[in-house]
Structures are given as C-alpha cells and as structure tokens.
Design a protein that fits this description.
Radius of gyration: 14 Å
Structural class: alpha+beta
CATH topology: Beta-Lactamase
InterPro entries: DUF7522
Order of helices and strands: HEEHHHEEEH
CATH class: Alpha Beta
Pfam families: DUF7522
Number of domains: 1
CATH superfamily: Dynein light chain 2a, cytoplasmic
Number of helices: 5
Strand order of the largest sheet: 2-1-5-4-3
Helix content: 40-55%
Largest sheet: 5 strands, antiparallel
C-alpha cells in the first residue's frame, strides 16, 4: 500500500519529492528520502519530528467536527522552501509527504492519490 503510494508520488512530484514516511502511535517508517534531504537529518531529528506529528494529530483530532467541510483528507504546511502534506489514516496514524516548494507543486494531486491508494 505505502510502496504503491510512494511510487505514485514519485510519478506526480518527480524530483520535487523530498520524503515519504508512515507514522503510527508507537513508531514511524521512512518509505523514501531523497539523498540530499537525508544528509540534513539525523535519527534524533527524525524522532523529534515523529513525536511532533503524533502530538499534532492528537491535538487537532476534533477539527473535523469544528469545520463543516466533510472528513479531513490532509493537513498542509507551507514553508518558505518546503511543502508538507500530512495525510491522516487513523487517530494516531498517517503518512508524511515532503516536497520542494514550487509554482507547480502537485499538492492536491497528492491528496487525491492518497484517497485512491491508501
């Protein structure tokens, strides 16, 4: 499932794809990390990011009820150089996708691919 989704992301985003990881209540797994991106992080950095993702997921669990727009499909965080798409799969589970920020970043295509694949 995640391998198929990662392949789809590589097709959609090409060289803009930075990283793909799954995360759950107790651990995370890297499905893809671009070489230049992996050089910038150590295991401690990734562990910290994982804990932040899980706590953010729990802290924002009720937003679906607060916004009458249907079920939440993704959270998108936009930074100066990077776009992060967090796709919830369950209360504590999800998929983390990181892309280079560009004018043609396929963010909504990624959300649609997640809906179809995961």
């Amino acid at each position: 499932m995640v391998e198929e989704f990662t392949d789809e992301l590589r097709s959609l985003a090409g060289d803009e794809l930075r990283a793909v990881a799954t995360f759950g209540k107790l651990d995370y797994e890297l499905a893809f990390v671009r070489d230049d991106v992996s050089e910038g992080y150590n295991r401690g950095d990734l562990d910290d990011l994982y804990r932040t993702l899980v706590s953010d997921r729990i802290a924002n669990d009720d937003i679906d009820q607060q916004l009458p727009g249907g079920e939440q499909q993704a959270r998108i965080k936009v930074f100066e150089d990077v776009i992060v798409v967090i796709i919830p799969i369950g209360r504590y589970e999800g998929v983390f996708v990181s892309l280079d920020r560009g004018p043609d970043s396929p963010v909504l295509d990624i959300v649609d691919a997640a809906e179809a694949t995961l």
